[in-house]
């Protein structure tokens, strides 16, 4: 016998509720820095203790006016949307997020990870990231290396990135998402410290553990209802 039609939406809503739960949070240990502007983060766990995003990744600062975490310090972060950690109006946040994803796809590997990466290239990449999170208004004209809170002060890498950003701005769709990295926006629970972009591999971008628990509960409930209906 088929389940009554009214039962299915109930079971589906149980599983779907995980996506709209309270803002998820993670805790991790901040480790050694790379090029002065990123740091490793390990032992990442969700609030319930389950491993988060594969357990480790890299954090890149996006709030230049606050402190960078100390090495080997434990920090708790809320996983938030782009609008929560950038200065642009909420309407401009989707484009800012797309531009950030484009920036990582095109410059993160060469300026932060490669054998030729150094403090100058790292600074240039991070300064471009600050430009997007601090001065961006939704328009290409706001990505200006000569004005605003973030401006040119010696990094040729920064000038090169900014030029490319402006040249490609109109061709970056709002829906652009990195295929090379999974990016999460983090807000430190201690406002003394910088907000971050968490960088992991796409495969590490797993759902919050609560999603699995609620999905399993929904499937068990569905199985039980089917058995009763057959009887």
Automatic annotation (TrEMBL):
One Pfam family named in its UniProt record: PEP-CTERM
Record-annotated Ice-binding protein C-terminal domain positions: 205-228
Signal peptide: 1-21
InterPro entries attached to this UniProt entry: Ice-binding_C
TM region positions: 209-225
Entry keyword set: Membrane, Signal, Transmembrane, Transmembrane helix
Protein name: PEP-CTERM sorting domain-containing protein
Organism: Roseateles agri
């Amino acid at each position: 016998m088929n389940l009554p039609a009214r039962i299915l939406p109930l079971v589906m809503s149980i599983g779907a509720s995980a996506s709209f739960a309270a803002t998820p949070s993670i805790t991790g240990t901040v480790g050694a820095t790379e090029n002065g502007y990123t740091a490793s983060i390990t032992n990442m766990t969700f609030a319930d203790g389950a491993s988060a995003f594969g357990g480790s990744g890299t954090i890149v600062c996006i709030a230049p006016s606050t402190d960078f975490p100390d090495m080997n310090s434990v920090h708790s972060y809320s996983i938030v949307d782009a609008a929560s950690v950038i200065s642009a109006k909420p309407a401009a946040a989707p484009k800012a997020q797309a531009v950030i994803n484009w920036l990582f796809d095109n410059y993160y590997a060469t300026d932060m990870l490669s054998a030729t990466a150094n403090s100058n290239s790292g600074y240039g990449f991070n300064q471009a990231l600050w430009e997007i999170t601090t001065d961006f208004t939704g328009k290409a004209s706001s990505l200006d290396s000569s004005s605003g809170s973030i401006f040119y002060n010696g990094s040729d890498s920064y000038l090169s990135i900014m030029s490319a950003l402006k040249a490609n701005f109109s061709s970056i769709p709002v829906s652009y998402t990195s295929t090379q990295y999974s990016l999460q926006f983090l807000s430190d629970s201690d406002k003394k410290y910088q907000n971050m972009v968490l960088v992991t591999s796409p495969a590490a971008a797993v759902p919050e553990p609560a999603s699995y628990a609620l999905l399993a509960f929904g499937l068990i409930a569905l199985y039980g209802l089917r058995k009763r209906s057959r009887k």
